[in-house]
Write a structure and sequence with these properties.
GO terms for molecular function: DNA binding. Keywords: DNA integration, DNA recombination. It comes from Nitratireductor indicus C115. By secondary structure, this protein is mainly alpha-helical. The protein has three domains: about 1-110, no CATH class; about 120-220, no CATH class; about 245-430, Intergrase catalytic core (hpI Integrase, Chain A, Orthogonal Bundle). The protein is about 50% helix and about 5% strand. It has helices at about 25-50, 55-70, 80-85, 85-100, 105-110, 120-130, 135, 140-165, 175-185, 200-220, 245-255, 265-275, 280-285, 325-335, 345-360, 375-385, 390-395, 410-420, and strands spanning about 1-5, 15-20, 290, 300, 320-325. The chain has a three-stranded antiparallel sheet with strand order 3-4-5. Strands 1-2 form a two-stranded antiparallel sheet. α2 (about 55-70) crosses α5, α8 crosses α9 and α8 (about 140-165) packs across α10 (about 200-220). It is elongated and about 85 Å long. The relative contact order is 0.08. The model has no long low-confidence stretch (mean pLDDT about 90).
């Protein structure tokens, strides 16, 4: 039993109070069902207080989904029930209604007679960000969240510009095919050079496919046909960035004066990449707590930043690792024990700065080389030196495709192995 708030009794048909059987003698189950119903009512009443028609319709729909779940059923639209529900399921739903204990709205929900609210593509994207995947964004830094939204919003904006900001329920296969053809003109135009890669088109199509499925699953329609299903482009094998040769690193990049005019922090990052094989973003976002220069074995901890005021994810779970410091990297972090605050949360600026400087100062041996080539060189150098394959994967932050046992070797062993590839350098370059 629950009383409807006084100021909402004119708009909630169950006024002045709600009474509903939970149909169980199990106290724990009854509490779980009660909580679902309470959550549904709270969401509905909050939307009614806001007096926003679209949000109210969505809140009513979601409340209906929760009420059906509390009664032990899975919410399904009337069309879905008629198409694929078993006879036993339909009979059970009708019997629940016939006993007369449900409100008119709850009865409609049980048989899928509550209409799906009208929500546009752009509004669905807001719901996706704010509700559906909100937990996935919690540990991202502000820059990571902005980049994540930018990529996914691009797909929505492109679709809206081409087809219009349609209601989600009105998007057709023809709309999806039109969007596919829009990208086909960019990926494989007839008689002209492509302006975009297949991966760009696939990214937009994939993001719309995910948005469509996630939104309707969130709204309780798990078996709805996805109009963006199986629309994609064949991607050619990606070009692998070439590594720097040892001769080039020692004779050109580590040559005294080669990076003299670069700002100190950017130069420190570039030099650290040589003997860590880390991603530039990983080095840029290190904090004092992750740099253990005074430890028995000086090392870096590549790990997520859990500061609630300034969180940051790392690329994958396997990317979390400890890297012993050797050679020029040890020299760099002796000078920068608190990291590189100029580029913290600004990894894109760092990448642009390094690539531009290397290009303009002849530090790339070819047009195909980028700053990421340091990472490829690190892997090659470890392989040539005969380092254990699993140790190489650990130090690179790659996934090991077998159950993990042990700690991956002591830090002292890792350090001794890495010393095999340490390159000579003049400390004055730091």
């Amino acid at each position: 039993m629950r009383r409807v708030p006084a100021r909402l009794q004119l708009v909630d048909e169950r006024s002045p109070s709600i009474r509903q059987s939970l149909k169980t003698g199990d106290l724990a189950l009854a509490r779980a069902k009660r909580d679902l119903l309470e959550e549904a009512d709270n969401a509905l009443w909050a939307s009614l207080l806001l007096d926003a028609p679209r949000d109210t319709a969505r809140a009513r729909y979601q409340a209906a989904v929760k009420r059906v779940e509390a009664l032990g059923f899975t919410f399904r639209s009337g069309a879905a029930l008629g198409k694929s529900a078993s006879l036993d399921d339909i009979i059970a739903r009708l019997e629940t209604i016939e006993n007369g204990s449900l409100s008119r709205e709850a009865s409609k929900a049980v048989v899928g007679a509550v209409p799906l609210p009208t929500v546009t593509v752009s509004k669905a994207f807001e719901i996706y960000v704010d509700e559906i995947v909100a937990d996935e964004l919690v540990n991202k830094s502000q820059n990571q969240r902005a980049q994540w939204k930018k990529v996914k919003r691009r797909a929505v904006n492109n679709f809206v510009d081409l087809v219009g900001d349609k209601e989600m329920t009105e998007i057709t296969r023809e709309d999806a095919q039109r969007f596919y053809r829009f990208w086909l003109e960019k990926v494989a135009p007839k008689g002209r050079k492509a302006t975009h890669s297949a991966s760009s088109g696939n990214r937009d199509l994939g993001n719309l496919r995910v948005l469509y499925e996630a939104y309707f699953t969130h709204m309780g329609e798990t078996d709805r046909f996805n109009p963006f299903s199986k629309l994609n482009f064949h991607e050619k094998k990606k070009r692998i960035r070439p590594p720097f040769s040892v001769e080039w690193i020692v004779g050109t990049i580590l040559k005294p004066g080669a990076m003299q005019t670069m700002n100190d922090e950017a130069r420190g990052v570039a030099l650290a990449l040589i003997e860590t094989g880390a991603r530039p973003s990983e080095i840029a976002n290190l904090t004092k707590q992750s740099i253990h220069i005074d430890a028995d074995i000086p090392h870096l901890s590549i790990e997520p930043r859990v500061d609630p005021e300034d969180p940051r994810e790392i690329k994958t779970a396997s990317s979390e690792r400890k890297l012993p410091l050797i050679g020029v990297a040890l020299e760099v972090f002796s000078r920068f024990p608190e990291g590189f605050p100029r580029y913290r949360n600004r990894e894109n600026d760092l990448s642009a700065t390094l690539n531009k400087y290397f290009r303009e100062n002849g530090l790339f041996p070819s047009r195909s080389h980028t700053i990421y080539s340091f990472r490829h060189s690190f892997e090659d150098r470890m392989k040539i030196a005969g380092l254990d394959p699993e140790l190489r994967m650990i130090l690179m932050g790659h996934t090991i495709d077998r159950p993990r046992y042990g700690a991956g070797g002591t830090m002292e062993w890792r350090q001794n192995e890495l010393k095999k590839i340490a390159l000579p350098f003049d400390p004055a370059i730091v």
